[in-house]
Amino acid sequence: MGDKGVFWLPDAMSTFAGEVDALFWFVFWTSTVLFVAVVAAKLYFMFRYKRRDETSVPDPVHESKLLESAWIVVPTLLVLFVFIWGFDVYLRMNTAPPDAYEITVRGKQWAWEFEYAEGVTTFTEMYVPVGRPVKLVMSSSDVLHSFFVPAFRVKQDLVPNRYSSVWFEATQTGEFQIYCTEYCGTAHSAMLAKVVVVSEEEFASWITEQSQDLPPVELGAQLFAQCALCHAVDGTTKIGPALNGIFGTQQKLTDGTSVLVDEDFILESILNPAIKVAEGFQPIMPAGYSGMTPKQLDGLVAYIKSLK
Description:
Layout: H1 17-48, H2 65-93, E1 101-108, E2 111-116, E3 121-122, E4 125-129, E5 134-140, E6 145-149, E7 154-158, E8 164-168, E9 174-180, E10 193-198, H3 200-211, H4 216-223, E11 250-252, E12 258-260, H5 263-271, H6 294-306
Parallel strand pairs: 1-5, 4-10
Antiparallel strand pairs: 1-2, 2-3, 5-8, 6-7, 6-9, 9-10, 11-12
């Protein structure tokens, strides 16, 4: 939550975030007032009509047509008002402007992948221009994920073998947190990324820089960002084995055999991780990286080879 956040809501940083907040607070305060009124009425009736002695007989109560009509009509009108308001906001949140800049988002265990129209692919950061509508076309490579940016008030499930979409228009530059809000396995809580909102000029320059051909090791270093959640490069142990200094060594496997860590073994471990599993670890690495291009795979292998 930023400095301008109210209670548990973060700062509103998209064009329709204010409308979402307004609807939320209307429902919240209306519900609060009704809750207090009902509790107060119960307490009043409890003490006002408490039986004073065992011989007292209360007067017969006759229904009030006006009162019965009121508690039917008023809640119905209130629900219709909230429905129409919410449906209007929902339609605008789910109908991207025709000139929106499109980014492809893929969720996989346990990383976000962002692919731009210019062919650029990133993993831990999604760059977008400020003041320009951005449409995200999203899918999942394995299980159900959910894309959530609290500051923009956007949340959308990613379903395997289906496309879903969401759009937003950031109103200020800065970095904003992306979460996965659908439990997706061991490292679900660490499946994080950031939206980096920059000016149009900075965005154009960034795209140009990213589109340039990179040496294999540098390309691999960028791609490894999606692997860093499970594999360390400083010798520490995470969900998977550390990868620094392993190239050219003998790796013991869970079946008791050993294998030379060469280019073929690294490539096989990326594409088919369950075939040969390092001793002391579980075969939980998802087989969701087969969609990488040959150039990306070569870069990732080159980077792992370079780790000391």
